[in-house]
Amino acid sequence: MNETIDIAKKFMEFFYTANSPQKGKVLVVSKYAERTRVNICLLKFFLHEMKQKGIFITIDRPHQYTASLLTIHGISQENLVYIDAVSRISGETEANVSNVRFINGPYEMNFLDDITAISFAGGAVKTKSIDLDEMNFILIDDIAALTKYQEADGVKKMIHSYIDSIERLNNITAPIVLDANQNRAIYEIIMNRCDRFLFINLSKSIFKEMNRPTHLKRKKVLMPKETSFAKPAATGGY
Amino acid sequence: MADEMERLCSGVDGVDELIEGGYPYPSVILVAGPAGTGKTTFTQQFLFAGAEMGEIGLYFTTLSEPPQWVMHYMSNFKHLNKSHIGKNVIFCDIGQMLRKASPEEILAFIDEEVARTMAQRVVIDPITVIKEFLGNDYRPFLFDLVNHLKNWRAVSILTGEVEPNQLYPSEVAYASDGVVLLTYEEVEGARRKYMEVLKMRGTNHRTGKQSFVITKEDGFVVLSGTF
Ligand SMILES: Nc1ncnc2c1ncn2[C@@H]1O[C@H](COP(=O)(O)OP(=O)(O)OP(=O)(O)O)[C@@H](O)[C@H]1O
Ligand SMILES: [Mg+2]
Asked: Which one of A37, A150, A182 has the shortest CB-CB distance to B3?
């Protein structure tokens, strides 16, 4: 993985200023086609460079894909636990591994309602005896994929619950990686609830912190029913 | 609540217009046709178009044309930028391993290459020869292959060789998300080439045969209008 920008250095500058870690919810805007690479860069930074502990929630593809990517790129997963909500509906054999907690499907339960509860309910997190309060980061891949399994209201609720859960966890960094064009409604909800904003384009070597994007051009024609999401920014939820 | 599906451009002039702007991402597409219809050219353009945008393309050759000869013939086309070779367009020969490896080993090898390169575009050219080596294991192999390729988040084109009495290789066609047919037809004493989108999941695609040409300057180009 020879990215032309020194991504670790950029992440370092972004996430850690004057050696004091900046926690919170970070919206990372990047192209969907670069999702895998951006996720691996983030995981590499947190796990490998910073030796941190974290949670990786998978909704879009079984966790094994991320696990093999990390192995191939020499990144240790000792400090990573997975919450895998898609393996059981993926047509693939479920791996028998200790650092994964399987959910029946992303449609099934409000599994994002309370990350704290799910993790203590006896899954991997418990067996590996990792205290959630010790977790440094949490990543979700891909939050927009929820729209495949739920109606708009359900998705909206799940996203708010997820962000509420993050806010209850101590000192956790939660990058939420999203393509601005992938789903406008989701993008706006998340944008309104995130603390910081980062734009990454790996193929064009762009990495920059942004202010809260306010000038969204909404594709009204495509999604006429979702105008209700367009509430003023920074209200902290609906 | 679902927005427009994410799509990757085909790299072939005239094709994106037929399929709502590009192939669904991720997906697996079969491009099938008899010998010499232009399957390899079609897939090379797909990879080089991605490379132009900074994407990574991975091209697996099986037992038909080794990478050396694909590059040799493709170097003839002016629009393919050779500086992408080895960087954003990566060639990988699995011909030798096919002769002796198990289906699991073949799949593991492909998985590893796709994961290592994190390619967004993958081509296996042609997929159909693998059948001769796998026999009864071919269908489960295809099922796993297609599933894995999509989960790696790539648009993959599998090319299929078509026997004279056959329309397309049906096992691959069922497993794929899209089927594009390349054919020859005799029209007024001349042989013309046609392409047709038979299937494209999640896409309101145009049907009907479109005529296409292959030229040195522009490569594979689909002409507008149906014939
Ligand atoms: N420079 C060129 N100018 C015009 N036509 C060309 C040129 N190069 C290739 N062609 C056309 O493309 C055809 C070969 O294309 P290609 O190798 O992509 O086909 P294929 O379907 O992959 O063939 P095979 O089944 O043998 O693998 C030639 O038979 C020829 O008709
Ligand atoms: Mg060929």
From this structure: A182
